[in-house]
Amino acid sequence: MKRPGRISTAIDCLRCALAGLALLATLGLSLLWLVLPGRWPVRRWIEILGWRLILAGFGIRIAVHGNPVPDARTLIVANHISWIDIAAIARVADVGFVAKSEIVSWPVIGVLARRYGCIFIDRSNRGDLGDLARRMAGYPKQTGLALFPEGTTTDGRDVLPFRSSLFACIGERWPEIQPVTLDYRGADGKLLSPEERRRVAWLDNDALLQHAFSLAMSGGVTLHVWFEQAFEATDRKHAAARSRDIIAARLAAPDDGAYAAARKRAA
After folding, report:
1. Which of 66-80, 85-99, 117-131 has the lowest mean pLDDT?
2. Closest C-alpha to 26, from 145, 100, 121, 116
3. How far apart are the C-alpha atoms of 258 and 135, rounded to whole Å?
4. Which of 16, 93, 205, 206 has the greatest number of CB atoms lying within 10 Å of its CB?
């Protein structure tokens, strides 16, 4: 039954207000996080709390399948749907991210991303792509790293080819790849409708603030995070193709009840 217009508007306003409060609370935690020494364990606790606040504020529940490989030499690669993907992965795995260079100029977020350990890349600049392998090879050995090799976002039902140039770092520092499948579903474990997927997906022409409001008003979804079996990479083309195939196979697999069963443990 469709809600009356005034009730619907009031609920949407409430959802946006909750999302705004979550962002403000996270900003407060971020200021505390910035002044703490880098190796204090409490920093990681603050990070997890901040990611939890963001996810809860936007009505995103997380269902985790499998576990991240604890070895910091394992490179996490995932399909990419929304900016909220980062919060979901970072809540579970203590990793930095390879991110687009535009983020550096974003107010507040740019500063936080730098301190968080992000590697920034201009994907339109071939020279920057060539330098990425060197920067990834020199990444702190005690910290893992996550990468979105599609190079852009999609609505989540298909997986674009992975850019093998982003896997040029394969070697001693990153000998192993762990694919991570991100799959947004309804609370009942069913696929989202095209309209619902569009609200979740942050596509190229979407303004960040506009998309944040749209996501907040979506009514909440469950993001299933599948930590797939890690594998040893032989070269960059092999790493790109195999990790992409694993993620695509997960998205195309018939539902065996795992999605509905995960509702009870989603958080």
Report:
1. 117-131
2. 116
3. 38
4. 93
Whole-number CA gyration radius for the chain:
18
**pLDDT of res. 59:** 93
Contact yes or no for 62/55 (Cβ under 8 A) = yes
Report which of residues 4 and 188 the model is more confident about: 188
Are the beta carbons of 184 and 221 closer than 8 angstroms? Answer: yes
> For all residues of the chain together, what is the average pLDDT?
89
Q: What angle do CA 59, 63, 69 make, to 5 degrees?
A: 130
Closest C-alpha among 237, 98, 97 to residue 164:
237
pLDDT tens-digit readout, 194-229: 999 999 999 977 888 889 988 898 878 999 999 999
pLDDT digits over 71-90, tens only? 899 999 999 999 999 999 99
Inter-axis angle of helices 84-92 and 41-57, nearest 10: 140
Residue 93 to residues 64, 75, 77, 197: CA-CA distances in angstroms?
Answer: 11, 11, 12, 25
What type of residue is 161? P
